[in-house]
Amino acid sequence: MRLTLLPALAGLLALGGCFGGGSVPDQLFTLSAAETRPAAAPRIAEPGQAITVADPTVPQALRTQRVPVYIDETSIQYLQDAQWVENPAALFGRLVGEVIAARTGRVVLDTAQYTNEPGTVLTGQLQRFGIDPTSMEAVALYDVAVANPTGGIRSNRFEARVPVAEVTPLAAAPALNQAANQIAEQVAAWVGGTPAS
């Protein structure tokens, strides 16, 4: 499944002043999981078998719906006429959870769904998620920590780089989606699966 660009609603255009005074682009970026779990396929998790995926924390550069362009190690600009439909951390977290569910067969929850039985908890920080114009790549860098219900924490870092032909919204959108999916697939393989009951 490819990343889609959502038509902006007229109501969002009217709220353009809420986004720093600029107008909302005609199309907004979102993320789409390359693999999804099938409908009408219930799963059951025994105590400790579920996995809860929290939205990643992000640095200040990603606490916006704008798309960063990493000029160098100390300079960031934002891609003109490009904006996420919502905070990229929420989009990224849901994509990671969906791919883990599709690839591992595990019951995957988000932090709003569990009560007393979160099972394994996956947290992380999305360090980078934007365009590197020097290498002409979309880049995603994700630090992950997994806390097991029996105790103990393990961590890992995952990176994906996808070529872009030009630094434009139309070129950036699918490349960022592909990079996010590559990270999600790496995380799913690292977390591993538990057979569904």
List keywords for this structure.
alpha/beta, five-stranded mixed beta sheet, disordered N terminus, Rossmann fold
Structural write-up:
The protein has 197 residues and is of the alpha/beta class. The protein has one domain: ABC-type transport auxiliary lipoprotein component (Rossmann fold). It has helices at 10-14, 88-104, 169-191, and strands at 5-7, 27-29, 51-53, 66-72, 75-83, 108-110, 120-132, 137-147, 153-163. The strands form 3 sheets. The chain has a 5-stranded mixed beta sheet with strand order 6-3-7-8-9. Strands 1-2 form a two-stranded antiparallel ribbon. Helix 2 crosses helix 3 (169-191). It is elongated, with a radius of gyration of 18 Å. Residues 1-21 have low confidence and may be disordered.
The biggest beta sheet is recorded as: 5 strands, mixed
Tally of DSSP β-strands: 9
Helix content: 10-25%
Order of helices and strands: EHEEEEHEEEEH
CATH architecture tag: 3-Layer(aba) Sandwich
The CATH homologous superfamily is termed ABC-type transport auxiliary lipoprotein component
H/I helix tally: 3
Indicate the overall shape.
Answer: elongated
Gap from first CA to last CA = 28 Å
Round the mean pLDDT to the nearest integer and report it.
Answer: 85
Strand neighbour order, sheet with most strands: 6-3-7-8-9
What's the gist of this structure?
This protein has 3 helices and 9 strands. With 197 residues, the protein is an alpha/beta fold.
What topology does this entry show?
Blueprint: E1 5-7, H1 10-14, E2 27-29, E3 51-53, E4 66-72, E5 75-83, H2 88-104, E6 108-110, E7 120-132, E8 137-147, E9 153-163, H3 169-191
Helix pairs in contact: 2-3
